[in-house]
Amino acid sequence: MTSTSSWLDEDLTFSNDAKTNKKTPFYEPIVNGFESGYKPHVSYHYNPAVSNYHYGVRHPMKPFRLMLTDHLVIAYKLYEKMDLYTPRRATREELLDFHSEDYIKFLETVTPDNVNKFSQVLKKFNIGDDCPIFDGMYDYCSLYAGGSIDASRKLINGMSDIAINWSGGLHHAKKYEPSGFCYVNDIVLGILNLLRVHPRILYIDIDLHHGDGVQEAFYLTDRVMTVSFHKYNGEFFPGTGNYDETGVGKGKHFALNVPLQDGIDDESYINLFKSVIEPVITTFKPTAIIQQCGADSLGCDRLGCFNLNIKAHGECVNFVRSFGLPMMVVGGGGYTPRNVSRLWCHETSIMTNVKLKTKLPDELPFRSFFGPDYSLHPNLGDRIDNKNTKKYLENLKNQLLENIRFMRGAPSVSMSEIPPDIQGITTEEEDAIISQLNRESELDDIESDKRYWINEKDNARDLELVD
């Protein structure tokens, strides 16, 4: 007898006809496992316009990877399992919640055509090969930041348990300047929004690079704990993220860094991740989690140096999900677009608690990008020697657990009143809504008046009521 999941397997002893293949679903619900009882309400936040921008021909950051991800999500019909939202752009006022006035003004006004007029300030704003000026740069920033702000709103108002924005996760951007391909820090903006109602936020980063922009933004507070797993040797970008960076002042011990060497494999990464994240969650007791899922930590990434496969990366996300806390999931790095999109589609299926067929759907647009295997799970491991010895990882784990012990439990937080603009409605939108409600109220009065006279006519005897 074949198992219930045999139709998901690609190595079958028989093949289906075309009609059967067309009717066969691409996913099935996960019914076994300790987390299967948790059925979160998932929302997917994606504005198609965000994939239309281009950093430059030779630049490794390719926003069209978001289009590939969306095509995979649609081809696997994962939209059936989620609420779909097209978020609006972040407003200037929303970007100023974190970024400085002069920096946002610079992003608004500079273009490839007028860049010569800004030659005196390009160095001030860290403009160069990593962070070039390109067409529509400000619109691109407002689009991906708007996705994370919208995702945070859905968590706040209870419309979602898990909110996904794969266009977000640009964790290097600073208050006054861009860094590492990141111009606006959507993660910080999302966390600031969540802090209006959530006393403690946990940020987890599994990008290849240290999440320095988010760590820096919350380095002095105990309301946000940042945990970053990344390559570190003192020289690899951004050059920060050693285990002794633990926070300052009130934020002391609320930054946790996991510096890794080249070539870490699936088993080592998963074991270390779980052994660190479980005590972090049980000690810090976050009320919401932001998970950054940078795909450059996969093996075979254009800028990468790890040996992680898609399932191992996804297992880390699944472990965080299993705690059942409100969760915002964002993208990040990733410079081999076909593998980035495979990963984020797989992790979307994890959020929606389904298992996907390994063979990519035949109806998938741009399917040729995924050859020659046309698989959701190509082998990406064992390309680089693993320089993370067992002794190194054991010593690192002990040091991290010691840092966690110094937290001495979850900090108590004094919460202020929730601001009235928590839904993120702009002044123009609010005026339009009020105007529409006033018109509807006037129509209701007219209709009520009509219904009154109709009823009076129906109840009156002949000649008792005259128009």
From TrEMBL:
- Positions with a binding annotation for a divalent metal cation: D207, H209, D296
Instruction: Indicate yes or no for the key word Protein biosynthesis.
Output: no
- Segments spanning the bilayer are none
Output the InterPro entries linked to this UniProt entry. HDAC_I/II, HDACs, His_deacetylse_dom, His_deacetylse_dom_sf, Ureohydrolase_dom_sf
Active-site residues, record numbering mapped to chain: H172 (proton acceptor)
Cellular component GO terms held in the UniProt record: Rpd3L-Expanded complex; Set3 complex
The subcellular localization recorded is: Nucleus
Q: Which UniProt keywords apply?
A: Chromatin regulator, Hydrolase, Metal-binding, Nucleus, Transcription, Transcription regulation
Question: EC number(s)?
Answer: 3.5.1.98
Catalysed reaction, written as an equation: N(6)-acetyl-L-lysyl-[histone] + H2O = L-lysyl-[histone] + acetate
- Keyword Metal-binding carried by entry: yes
State the top-level EC class: hydrolase
Q: Which family does it belong to?
A: Belongs to the histone deacetylase family. HD Type 1 subfamily.
Q: What is this protein called?
A: Histone deacetylase
Q: What is the lineage of its organism?
A: Eukaryota, Fungi, Dikarya, Ascomycota, Saccharomycotina
